[in-house]
Amino acid sequence: MARLTGVGRQPIGLGATMLAAVSWGFTGIFAVLASAPGLVVTFYRLWLSAALVTIVLYASGRRLSWAVMRASWLGGVFLASDIAMFIDAVKLTSVVDVTVIVAVQPALILIAARRLFGERMGRWDVFWILLAMVGVTVAVLGPGVHNHHQLVGDLLAIGALLSWSTYWLVSKHARVMHNAMEYTTGVTITAALAITPIVLLAKEPLTRVQAGDWLWICLLVLVPGTGNLVMNWAHRYVEASVSSAINCLNPLVAAVAAWIILGQPLTLVQGGGILVGLAAISVVAAQHREPMESLPV
Predict the structure, then answer these.
(1) DSSP assignment, residue 177?
(2) Which residues, at least 6 apart from 123, have a Cβ–Cβ distance to it below 8 Å?
(3) 203-226 residue pLDDT tens
(4) For the residues of 93-135, what is the DSSP string, one character each?
(5) Residues 97-153: pLDDT tens digits?
């Protein structure tokens, strides 16, 4: 049964989920360090990612079918929307402000997963997920960057939250039928195509990229971009509500990285919130872990 259902792969899926969440924590950091406009960064990030995953896909001997592309278009649109609004948000306000809003995701996923996938969470699961969200919120609350663009940045962060949550659920559903590598390739190509007319209509000059920006754009492709592939693989083996709770690592990592790399303040209280969030995430993961003996050979 472990070979047929993939249940035995759940411990690896949980680890993959954590790896993806950590990699996504650096998205806002790399975006802030790039001086180019947010839409321009998003444009190059998506097209470079699309080229990279396509090369890897065909080098591995796989092919991209129209069936996969049809299953990928909705996820691609919401992925493009999420990345564009998130990058613009962190450029208008602080990384910690944006991650406070994004930290609401587990609650949305918990509600939706019960209706869409029939996932049943026990009372203690709900308690630990809520505690993780509380810890995350405390961890990332900070003074922020107070300016007249902050309200716009917060509104964009809300839009990114809704787009990211929808992409999460759509990808969870699509992974029932499609290979992770093929689906990620289709999603990324669709996202790159979706963002192109938006950039052109906004009349953003694509030449406004300094030499130093390419380092951060490439890191966006390699680090958070790889996280998308890892998470799409893990979707088949980890419940959406559980993987979403583990994704609380994302804002925790972002808060610490913003403190170390960008110099944004992190207080002792925020440090306590990080510990609480990590502890709660660990409990959720441990409660849904299968014994390693069930791994298929």
Answers:
(1) T
(2) none
(3) 888 988 999 999 999 999 999 988
(4) S-HHHHHHHHTTHHHHHHHHHHHHT-----HHHHHHHHHHHHH
(5) 787 777 777 767 766 766 666 666 677 777 877 887 787 777 666 554 455 677 788
Taking alpha carbons only, the member of 36, 35, 43, 38 closest to residue 200 is 43
pTM (global) more than 0.90: no
Paired tokens of 164 = 């990211």
What tokens were used for 131?
């505690």
Measure the CA–CA gap between 170 and 116, rounded to whole angstroms: 10
- Pair of tokens at residue 198: 């938006």
Dist. CA 34–CA 191, nearest whole Å: 20
DSSP, res 167: H
Q: Which residues of 86-102 are buried (b: 16+ CB within 10 A; e: fewer)?
A: bbbbbbbbbbbbbbbbb
